Amino acid sequence: MPIDRARLHRALNPRTVVVVGDKGPDFRWLDNCSEFSGNLYSVQLDEKELPGIEAKGVKNFRGLMEIPGEVDLVICAVPRNVTPFIVADAVKKQVGGIAMYTSGFVETTDPTGIELQGKIAAMANEAGMPLIGPNCLGVYNRQLGVKFAEAQEKGEGGAISIISQSGANGSGLTLGAQRLGVPVRRAISIGNAAVLSEADYLEYLLDDPETPAIAMYIEGIRSGRRFFELLREGTKRKPVIIWRGGRTRAGARAVQSHTASLASDDAIWMSLMRQCGAISTESLEDTVETMAALVLTPRSSRKNLALIASTGGQSVAITDQFERAGFEIPELSQASYDRLSEFFVTIGGSYRNPFDASSTIGRESDNLAKILEILAAEPVIDGVAIELQVRDSEKGTARLDGMLSLLAEYRSKTGNPVIGLVPTGGTMGEQEAVGARARIHVAKAGFPAYSSFRAGAQALGRVRAYYEELGARTR
Asked: Counting beta carbons within 10 angstroms of the beta carbon of residue 232, is it exposed (0 to 12), middle (13 to 18) or buried (19 or more)?
């Protein structure tokens, strides 16, 4: 029978969670749910594990049927040969759904694993019970504190939700987004997707009023026509970022052994992405950086940017990258240049756009204030990308905070996107560490922050192109 959507909602938004088969000394799954705001129980038969479970203040039962009341989510971490018994009890208990961490199924090509996955999938399908996985990390819900990685945040709100066939990439996308100032509303690691397909999860998130945007890591499509129909219509309502693994021949072989998915021809895939209006990325870094541009900049399809760099050489480099990403770097009006010439007097500096600010901005924030005031009044400018100098930020953030305050004022006044660029030129050691800390600081102030001109240009370019295409599709 079809999977019950109401039960899927219970599993993804649980009030009661039961962890089956967790083991010490770390008790990974019980620890991941230590901030869960609902009822948390354990099912474990191994007597030697019981003291550790009790020490965590979690009540243990010998079976699912013993647990009082409704169970919304079962986290299953038992050996694969035990999974049919857990699924059978979950069916009897009418649980909302199961997130099955257990692996060793079709991804191994082992006949026993293939048979076992077929058996548990048939049981779940017959009962209409959602089974997430197997071979997955399961469910993260920011608001409720259900996690599959310890560092995932608990809190209100959330700007994007994630679907990932890979547990590691699901964790990487979530934690990477958090570092760049993007709160993740929910994440679902789907693994082998034995019962629910990628289309089922996409449909749920497209209909979820608490999910403003979606990011996906997928290796193969089971429900192709349905997936692309949902995507084509869904991207008119919400942006969807998709990073697809296995786009090369060798990558496709790796996909087969990872989640037993079948990778499709890359040219066909990219054509479908364009037709559906999805934002396509190529790596974890690409995807996280695009999330930041999507969430932390005002919606805009306009191309004309003002670029502000710290030196003449950097002004050339930044221009090349943003033009390659589809932006225009226009000259300003003569009236703007007349105003700029009154104070822009750094020897060797340029104020033509790109701005070669040299030492001017780093030492005199009032000059940045004047530049941004002129740009705000300049109708030809649709946004700003600025290289932020952070060499002295380890001594304090006062100068950087002053610049960020001015940029926030410009963004509020104009509604234009602003991104920060903190390149360290491939340096290692303390300088790179300073840059990394500065980027986190910039992100906490509400701006996308990038480690290279290329990364910032491409991330903002993908988002701009999405809104441009969206306008063309919905006119």
From this structure: middle
The order of strands in the sheet holding 214-218 is 138-141, 184-189, 160-164, 214-218, 240-244, 279-281
Nearest to 221 by CA among 249, 248, 253, 259: 259
Report pLDDT digits (tens) over 313-323: 788 999 999 99
Distance CA 168, CA 335 (A): 53
- Those residues with Cβ within 8 angstroms of residue 344's Cβ, 6 or more apart along the chain or in another chain: 351, 360, 367, 371
Helix or strand or coil: residue 471? helix
pLDDT tens, position by position, 146-161 = 999 999 999 999 999 9
Question: Using a CB cutoff of 8 Å and minimum separation of 24, what contacts does 309-312 make?
Answer: 309/354, 309/355, 309/356, 309/357, 309/387, 310/357, 310/358, 310/361, 310/362, 310/387, 310/389, 311/356, 311/358, 312/348, 312/349, 312/350, 312/356, 312/358
Q: How far apart are CA 200 and CA 230, in angstroms?
A: 10
The 10s digit of each residue's pLDDT in 10-40 is: 999 999 999 999 999 999 999 999 999 999 9
The structural domains of the chain, ordered by start, are 1-134 (3.40.50.720), 136-296 (3.40.50.261), 298-474 (3.40.50.261)
Question: Measured between alpha carbons, how far is 136 from 82 in angstroms, rounded to an integer?
Answer: 17
| Contact residues for 207 (Cβ-Cβ < 8 A; gap 6+) | none
Q: The tokens of 95 are what? A: 């649980």
Q: How confident is the model at residue 264 (pLDDT cuts 50, 70, 90)?
A: low
Max CA separation in the chain (angstroms): 81
Work out whether the CA dihedral 271, 276, 277, 280 comes out positive or negative. Answer: negative
Of 29-38, 230-239, 419-428, the poorest mean pLDDT is in 419-428
Give, in degrees to the nearest 5, the angle at Cα 142 between 140 and 143.
130
